[in-house]
What we know:
alpha+beta, 8 helices, 12% strand
Amino acid sequence: MADEDGAPVGLTMGFQAGGLIGLYLGFSLATISVLTDAENIQRTISLMCLPPFIFSLLLGPFLARRRKPVILTKEPLIEAREKLSKYNEGQGKWRTLSHISSDGMNLRIDMHNLTNVEGVVDGALEIAETTTVKFIVGRGNHKSSSPELRNRVLKRVEDKVGVLRRSRKAKSIEVNPIASHEYNAYQNKLNRMLLILLPIVSFLAWLEMRN
Length: 211
C-alpha cells in the first residue's frame, strides 16, 4: 500500500508525545541528580516534573502537525457496521446497530444472539488489522447464557491470529492491530533521536551537577 497522508494527529496527541519525550529526559536527569546529591530532593522532584510539562508545550504544536496514514483516519465503527451488515438477523436478534459499538479507539462486538459466529469473527478480523477489536463473549461457564460462545470465538481467533496479537479477558477476547509501516518508521525515528540526545544531555547535566 502506498504511503498516504490523512488528517493531522491533533494537539492532544502532539502534547502527549511531547510530554513523553520530556518524561524520558526528566527521568534521566532525576537519576543523575540522585547519584550526585541524594539529599537534594527538591531538585530531583523538579527534574522529574518540569521536563514533561516544558517539552509538551514546546514540541506539542509541532508534533500535532504530523499526519495520520489514511488507513488510520477511517471511522472503524462505520466500516464495521457496513462490512458486517450482511450478518444481521433482524430485530430482537443480532444486528450491527445494537451489537457493534465503539469507545472512540476500540471496537466492541457483542457476539450474543448470533447464529453465524464464525462469519462475523472472520469479517471482524479483517478490520482488526487496523483497529483493536473486542469480542464480547461472556465468561464461558455453565452459568452463562451462551456457555459455548467463548470457546467458539476463541478457537476461530486462535486459528486466524498470531498469539502476540490476541489476548483473553474475563468476558471478552481482544485482537490488536498489525503495527503499520508508518507507525514503525515513526517509532524507530523517535527511538534513534532519544538514543542520540539523552546520553548527550545526561552527560552535560552530570558535569553541571557534580560541580
